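Per your request, structure below.
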């Protein structure tokens, strides 16, 4: 499939930043800047406490709102957790699953990432599933094995028809928040490999239709080169998604 036929999705990951008041101000500033964007989808994944403000402030705009995590169960005794049903009820459309910070600091494993991804999909959310190697894994020459394992396990039990609601974000851990970006060639070869994994799990048609993002210090300066690669369909952006002007430049580079 021609890259132009896949959804180009630029998603911000705010992490633990922004209050509801700051969220409202940010969305009001961003909305007119991206209003003329045609082909790219604009998404901001925000902390749970900012969802209501984000959804209200983006009503009637082309900005979609996502969460940063989802629990695998529908309801129950899981203090501090939020279910997919709760998220959709609040107007959330996307959710990040398995971000490397969740894997590193909160004990996420390939298995929990799979369970959360399935819960997201079962609730009609689009799951942005993060995969990526650490610096040690890259230096040990196991980047492809790592990313392939993470992708395969994340997709266990995910039906082919559900893949239209799956985005894979390739995020080399060594590039996140470090200012050190993968080169366009490095990013492209892993994103192409991920597409190959999806083809082996499902089929070529499914792989060709799946949006694959790059994430890791993507910014207003390097976005155009990364997004021009044939297997990079969008970006998952941390730091630069907190600045409306920088985020707008990235969105326009994808459009
Ligand atoms: C991220 O948190 O997913 C990310 C890519 O962060 P940054 O853009 O700041 O590297």
């Amino acid at each position: 499939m021609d890259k132009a036929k896949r959804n180009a999705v630029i998603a911000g990951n705010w992490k633990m930043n922004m209050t509801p008041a700051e969220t409202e101000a940010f969305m009001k500033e961003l909305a007119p800047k991206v209003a003329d964007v045609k082909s790219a989808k604009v998404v901001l994944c925000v902390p749970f406490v900012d969802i209501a403000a984000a959804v209200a402030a983006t009503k009637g705009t082309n900005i979609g709102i996502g969460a940063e995590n989802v629990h695998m169960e529908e309801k129950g005794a899981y203090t501090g957790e939020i279910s997919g049903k709760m998220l959709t009820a609040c107007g959330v459309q996307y959710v990040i699953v398995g971000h490397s910070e969740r894997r590193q600091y909160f004990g996420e494993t390939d298995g929990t990432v799979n369970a959360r991804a399935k819960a997201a999909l079962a609730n009609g959310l689009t799951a942005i599933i993060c995969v990526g190697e650490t610096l040690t894994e890259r230096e040990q020459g196991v980047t492809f094995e790592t990313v392939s394992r993470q992708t395969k396990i994340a997709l266990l039990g995910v039906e082919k028809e559900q893949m239209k609601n799956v985005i894979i974000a390739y995020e080399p851990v060594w590039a996140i928040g470090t200012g050190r970006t993968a080169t366009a060639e490095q990013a492209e070869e892993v994103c192409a490999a991920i597409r190959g994994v999806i083809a082996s799990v499902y089929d070529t048609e499914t792989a060709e239709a799946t949006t694959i993002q790059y994430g890791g210090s993507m910014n207003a300066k390097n976005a155009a080169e990364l997004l021009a690669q044939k297997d990079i369909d969008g970006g998952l952006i941390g730091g630069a998604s907190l600045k409306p002007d920088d985020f707008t430049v990235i969105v326009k580079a994808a459009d």
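The mean pLDDT is 97.

Regards,
D.
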